Amino acid sequence: MEHAYQHRDRDGQPIDLPVGKIVCIGRNYLDHVRELGNAVPEAPLLFMKPSTAIVGLDAPLRLPEARGSCHHELELAVLIGRRLTGTSPAAAREAIAGYGLALDLTLREVQTELKNKGQPWELAKAFDGACPLSGFVRPEELPEPQAAELELLVNGERRQHGSTAQMMHPILDLIAHISRHFTLLPGDVVLTGTPAGVGPLASGDRLELRLAGRWSWSARVA
Ligand code: ZN
Question: Which residues contact 124 (CB under 8 A, 6 or more apart)?
Fold first, then answer.
């Protein structure tokens, strides 16, 4: 399948960075940890999605068929602009090329089964189309990324609402931590976890993703 995705800015203009991996954190908002009845992890719980999971929000979202419910997890997405290995939080700040929103799409029953067996989560989170991404705003447009409101409406109804202020591992600490385990490259994206309110998507759902009360993107489930 042709992979036409390219990182874009909030106006839809291409950003001159390659499309890389996505590094994600699970359980970074306490209210979401509680809604799934999970334990609070001490160190960040990391997983990845491959570049083939990324799609834009303009084309209808295609969910896997016959694999149980597919949940939306609305997350602040951070676009990395410089190579980072074993970096400090201060250096991580300089490497951020943009902020956007992502849906960390998750096959919930598949994930629960994997968790119960102690197996990794890729089958639930790394499928083609598992990471719809919005366009990115420049860092200077979002001067307080750690106090940004995230909101997801499904068919006009608010499903998820939170502030990045609720993160247990803040953005710069998280990027620094990740870079001690995996080198981040220009064009990689870090997903920073989801607030409460995750739930299943259905065919034909209309989504609206809002960031900081200033930017919004629409999407539709095929
Ligand atoms: Zn997530």
Answer: 106, 107, 108, 110, 111, 114
DSSP 188: -
Q: How far is the CA of 102 from the centre of ligand 1 (A)?
A: 9
C-beta separation of 100 from 148 below 8 A: no
How far is ligand 1, taken at its centre, from the CA of residue 32, in Å? 10
Stretch 58-79: mean pLDDT: 97
Judged against a pLDDT cut of 70, whether residue 166 lies above it is answered with yes
22-220: what CATH class?
Answer: alpha beta
- The answer to whether the beta carbons of residues 148 and 137 sit under 8 Å apart is no
Residue 167 pLDDT exceeds 70: yes
User: What is the DSSP secondary structure assignment for residue 209, as one 8-state letter?
Assistant: E
CA of 74 from ligand 1 middle (Å) equals: 7
Largest CA distance in the chain: 45
